[in-house]
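Structure first, sequence second, as always.
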């Protein structure tokens, strides 16, 4: 029996995928698996029993990835599960920035008690006139699960779409419609596009990437959209560009004191993935990842350990070892089993940066002695009997 704990409310549709071998616990101390959305985990004490954390969403800034890795805790996310919900809001953001819909709605509310509001609206509407997105150029920085969907949807709406992603995978490229122009220099996006939307992960290399220098390269009157992470944009530089008229509108899904209520900023209260469908999809994927890891040792969509899949074990046993990515580890593992007279019938070793993962199917059950031997090898974080 496995136990899991939810740090945030998780969709019941997702939780219903757990089999009878799983039991929900109110205590994280008793859980082998944790499901989380936005709860901050950096200051939490991670129990020794904890094997995996599944984030029902894409971003993992709220999870101490390195700390988890060094305790042999695999962290999963759910890339693409909420992509459609975010895509739809990006399109809505473009329309809101192009047409002063919110200004018009505010005018109607302010004049709701005026008997001639309908007649007056015909005169007032010129104050809220905008432009259409049809035929305009959209630049997309980052062609992952969300960026691809935005690109294809924008093409269908008649926009001329340019995409920039130096790490574009073959699988992602195959999902892009032919009409999307893939550029090799982000400066081409800045120089040529009427709308720019950013869809890259937040890391040291991307933090503040949309700054004064990048904005200077953009077209006059450009509209910038940020539904990825607020720290990707230097928002003080963005506000200055709005005040100077360089940027027409800035649309962000991340409220903060810099942009909230600022003229030219359309700030949405982090609604990108806040749809029933997105929450259900993320929860289902997170639960599936957690179960496959706990039951089979397989890793899909981890952010701190490499992907590894050996299917369902058909041998007597399966051992999982989470360890440092250093030389001579495999030799030591195989030697330990060899000395115990246990044959390794199948094995996979994968690495990701400083961390590695080895999965071994064995022809005889591993006893406490060999498990202790594996645990004693320098660089090993955790040894787990999967079966």
């Amino acid at each position: 029996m496995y136990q899991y704990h939810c740090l945030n409310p998780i969709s019941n549709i997702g939780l219903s995928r757990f089999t009878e071998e799983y039991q929900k616990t109110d205590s994280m101390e008793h859980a082998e698996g944790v499901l989380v959305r936005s709860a901050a985990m950096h200051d939490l004490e991670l129990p020794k029993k904890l094997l995996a954390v599944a984030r029902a969403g894409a971003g993992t800034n709220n999870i101490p990835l390195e700390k988890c890795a060094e305790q042999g805790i695999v962290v999963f996310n759910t890339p693409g599960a909420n992509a459609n919900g975010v895509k739809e809001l990006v399109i809505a953001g473009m329309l809101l920035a192009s047409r002063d819909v919110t200004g018009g709605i505010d005018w109607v509310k302010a004049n709701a008690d005026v008997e001639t509001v309908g007649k007056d609206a015909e005169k007032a509407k010129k104050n809220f006139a905008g432009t259409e997105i049809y035929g305009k150029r959209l630049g997309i920085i980052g062609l992952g699960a969300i960026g691809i969907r935005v690109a294809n949807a924008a093409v269908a709406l008649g926009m001329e779409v340019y995409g920039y992603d130096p790490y574009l995978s073959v699988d992602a490229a195959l999902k892009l419609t032919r009409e999307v122009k893939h550029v090799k220099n982000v400066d081409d996006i800045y120089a040529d596009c009427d709308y720019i939307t950013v869809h890259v992960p937040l890391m040291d290399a991307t933090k503040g990437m949309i700054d004064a220098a990048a904005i200077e390269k953009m077209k006059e009157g450009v509209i910038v959209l940020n539904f990825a992470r607020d720290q990707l944009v230097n928002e003080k530089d963005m506000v200055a560009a709005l005040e100077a008229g360089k940027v027409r509108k800035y649309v962000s899904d991340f409220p903060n004191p810099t942009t909230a209520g600022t003229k030219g900023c359309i700030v949405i209260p982090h609604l990108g993935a806040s749809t029933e469908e997105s929450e259900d999809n993320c929860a289902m994927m997170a639960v599936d990842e957690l179960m496959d890891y706990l039951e089979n040792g397989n890793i899909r969509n981890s952010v701190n350990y490499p992907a590894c899949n050996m299917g369902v074990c058909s041998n007597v046993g399966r051992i999982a070892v989470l360890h440092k990515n250093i030389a001579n580890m495999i030799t030591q593992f195989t030697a330990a089993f060899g000395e115990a007279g246990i044959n390794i019938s199948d094995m996979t070793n994968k690495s990701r940066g400083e961390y590695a993962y080895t999965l071994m199917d064995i022809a005889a059950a591993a006893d406490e002695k060999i498990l202790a031997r594996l645990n004693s090898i320098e660089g090993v974080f955790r040894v787990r009997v999967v079966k």
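Margin note: The chain has a mean pLDDT of 96.
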